[in-house]
């Protein structure tokens, strides 16, 4: 227990307030990214499995785009930050910028957790059809760029579950240790679930969708009831996918926390 | 005059209302992109002329990042859209996605106008130090990605001057032709200037910075007077740079409009 109690008091800057503030700030980023994707219609050629004519690459425009853009971002050091997770982690080029020493707050096992396959599937197969208009305006590159912004914002938020779990673990170590040792996912899930907090988050993101997605005019408060992204879709996104997927990350992290 | 009168009535879908709506919508994109850049501190290593260690490339992380990302976007067809202008137009790879037929509303000479050097200079040397906090948090790739979003949003808005000029030219062709033929920039500038409209735009973008940049909470209207990007900086950005640079594009376009 001595080692655990010690790690419990490390002065690495991680606080519950910091984690909360980041989660709240990330909501704005997610809502902005959805509003910006909704500027473009569905643009189905972006997603056709063989629309592009790229020698040696089999996939859609968006797959090629995300893969290549992640490679560029990797050379600029994006994935050195433990909060960032690539969608195509295989064969990423190394960073060409000098190493920055990010604070080490997570258990090293955190590095092995990446549920971006689930984030990708959720975004393209469930969320996207709910908030973009049908149609084709030719802007496939801009569409893919906006999709990447949404994907990265959602991925960052969901994988932030590692930090949420770490801070909760430190606060209530004696509650978490038995179910971790027993690999009891149900108990961990109930320890991680606060229904009233989740309801407040869903209400707040809906309010952000209303506030940031209104057609703002001078002199009045904007056209009531007309938003660039339906607030109900944003609160549903959180309730149905962001919160559950975050908990999945939290549980995966906790199960490795005592390794 | 017959040919001109004819071109005056082309049914290509360009209307003053459409141009206005696009300009207003683009304000939201610009404000969002500034707020998102302000998530990160200045992060000066992003801009150091020789910070990265890239064989065969001499420049800053952000230059390399923008150049490489534009290449990826070019393969996905971004610059096929006449509203998009690259910052590094030399040696861009060809689009690998099938050609989309964008409506041809502009005079072909529009293609030769690209003032992104001025946009780049304004953004990095004037605007950026006004709205980001000092400091270094290591997120150079994310910083460069956010810079690119700001640059592209500002570039699109400023080069939209081509469409603004085209729609104004069609509306008031007899007023515009004499100064175009005389290459009289001053008269063109005064024809293009509506001080009351400009004041309204500056007020509206400040209001957007307040509305989109507040810390939104449930139950109240957010903390008054505390915004992620200073609204005065956003209205100054429009008054000092976006509006004047747009007019520069408009004048360059008009001077070629009768070629």
TrEMBL record, chains A, B:
User: Chorismate mutase domain: which residues?
Assistant: 140-250
Indicate where this protein resides in the cell.
Cytoplasm
Taken from the UniProt entry, a GO cellular component term is: cytoplasm
**Which InterPro entries does the protein's record reference?**
Chorismate_II_sf (IPR036263), Chorismate_mutase_AroQ_euk (IPR008238), CM_AroQ_sf_eucaryotic (IPR037039), CM_II_prokaryot (IPR002701)
What start-end ranges are recorded for coiled-coil regions in this protein?
none
Enzyme class, UniProt record, top EC level? isomerase
Question: Which reaction equations make up its catalytic activity?
Answer: chorismate = prephenate
Which biological process annotations from GO are given for this protein? Answer: amino acid biosynthetic process; aromatic amino acid family biosynthetic process; chorismate metabolic process; prephenate(2-) biosynthetic process
What is the E.C. number? 5.4.99.5
**Domain of life of the source:** Eukaryota
**UniProt keyword annotations, A-Z:** Amino-acid biosynthesis, Aromatic amino acid biosynthesis, Cytoplasm, Isomerase
- What pathway, per the record? Metabolic intermediate biosynthesis; prephenate biosynthesis; prephenate from chorismate: step 1/1
Q: Name one GO molecular function term.
A: chorismate mutase activity
- Known PANTHER family for this protein? CHORISMATE MUTASE
What name goes with this protein? Chorismate mutase
Q: Which organism is it from?
A: Hibiscus syriacus (Rose of Sharon)
